Amino acid sequence: MRPRLVATDLDGTLLRRDGTVSARTREVLAMLDRRGVPVVFVTGRPMRWVEELHDDIGGHGLAICSNGAVLYEVAGRSVQRALPVAPATVLTVAHRLRTGLPGSRFALERVHGFARETDYRSRHVEPAGTPTGTLEDLLDGSTVKLLALHEEMAGDAYWRAVRDLVGDLVDVTWSSTWALVEMSAHGVTKASMLADVCAEQGIDAAEVVAFGDMPNDIAMLHWAGTSYAMADAHPAVVAAATHRAPAHDDDGVAAVLTELFDLP
């Protein structure tokens, strides 16, 4: 049975190492469009980083952004749904992490923008005019992802420690090569939003094929009936997936889809 819906992560999965979409991948996406097969981009990226790829993915429907907290209609560049973290929860989480893991610094991905504590050091280029200050001053009720950064801990170790301390309050995941942990409202994951999207289209989990490479993909890979970890995926992702795909720099997603759908 061929899948009825394709769900794919972006960074480290659909995109090449340089952040581009290859000509072959664009060709495969176009062929799936012509066959009426929905492709949903399921990413930890905020909307503004998905918009940067509009020329490559803009014609392909929906993106699930911020690890499941935002459903974004790519072609129309519009938010269909947002699931924020309650401000009181953000403050409680920050207090626990400052106490249990001193050196933790925080930033907020909001529905429409980014804000950070004054001493949080971003490793990405920040939007012009990024608000800075205390968490109390920055919270506006639209935080879809709380970011915690530690300059001295390893990524895996920090992720596991944060999960132990605040996993009862928020959903904790990690998709970076450094100690940057991502937190969404409790129960909000890539899988939860994807399940909602599929239910609205009458598509069962068994009819979905999903691709990913990092721990924030694990819930989605567990949920989908067929799942692929990329060749260079995190070991926990490899354990969660039912299959392996070639590396992202080798157009692994396109190669698997070509075989699954018998594409030219």
Automatic annotation (TrEMBL):
GO cellular component: cytosol
InterPro entries noted in UniProt: HAD-like_sf, HAD-SF_hydro_IIB, HAD_sf
GO molecular function, one term: magnesium ion binding
Keywords of this entry: Hydrolase
Protein name stated in the entry: Putative HAD superfamily hydrolase
Organism field: metagenome
